[in-house]
Design a protein that fits this description.
Blueprint: H1 3-6, E1 14-15, H2 17-24, H3 28-37, E2 44-47, E3 50-54, H4 55-65
Length: 69
């Protein structure tokens, strides 16, 4: 079993776009638009050209900024 399978989403510091889509129940396309439109956002950690979503920071962003996605 790989380490990524052993750690549940709710305990990870960062999530891939696919994981964040499942966790937050937001479409991958919408998440990609959010990351592409806000590349310097506090909730994004770039690993090369791949965006990783900082789970807690994105939760705060959703609570504070987004009423409808």
């Amino acid at each position: 079993m790989s380490i990524s399978q052993a750690i549940p989403f709710w305990e990870k510091y960062t999530l891939s776009i696919q994981e964040a889509s499942e966790y937050f129940r937001i479409g991958e396309k919408k998440l990609r638009i959010l990351t592409d439109d806000n590349p310097d956002a506090d909730y994004i950690l770039w690993n090369g050209n791949r965006a990783q979503i900082k789970r807690k920071k994105f939760e705060q962003y959703i609570d504070e900024k987004l009423s409808v996605i």
